[in-house]
Model the fold of this input.
Amino acid sequence: MSSLSEHSARPILGAWADSLAQVLESMTDQRPAVDWCVLPAQEAIPADEDILWWTQGFHHKTEAEAWVATSRQTWEYAGTLTLKAAGLETSSPEEVKNTWLEILGQWLSALARALTSHAGSEVACQAGAEQAPSERPAEWISVTLCFGETRLSPIAVAFSPELDAIFHTPPSSAEDSTETGYSEALVHSTESAGTPANSRTMDLLLDVELPVSISFGKTQLPLKDVLRLTTGSIVELNRGVGEQVEVLVNHCLVARGEVVVVEGNYGVRIQQIVSRLDRLRSLR
Done:
């Protein structure tokens, strides 16, 4: 396996590490400083820390994987900061962890797009899981975030040989062989809500059916009140008559609008596509 510290890999890795700051800034309105380096496994992954492992699948001609090890201090700080930016002052550990995994997903998607640009053929993200590698690679990328004077524990990232090989393939064009070129590709991948026009993966997904539902509101009731419900009972929801209803796709908030009547049927006129922060608020 070629070394990740070689010149051919550094432009992609440097731009990708910086893209984590862009992802966090878009979700927290704070841009952390980012430092990165290549370290052996015994230095990159402290044995005495509570580590959250994530295995991310990729596909490029064959299956590949990346492994991310994040200390509790780092994922709790970043996840809590993101939820507070979304207006959630108190959050459960599970909500904080899920928020960090969403940040991680966006960061790893940016890597796939940068490698796609480099290789000239699609590198697609596959399913991921909270799982450590069966055998730890010898070489790891150590990424450190600093929010002002708060320096977080490093994030350790390693790649399978199949993914590592893409870093060392000749770039698809001279334009993509510079760190600036990779930075521009990563900025587009983290800031743009659109999908690349040539994405074969997205073409395959366009006919997938997803459940769409409309939420008029919700409430919480003690069990004793639930047992008293009968025909004619009225349950008061947490949304006023004049407020917008929520459009949920696969149980995820995507838009808000007003109820209308279309040829005798209820419908919803979309008035707002929700932001990423609004989507995070809907986790509660």
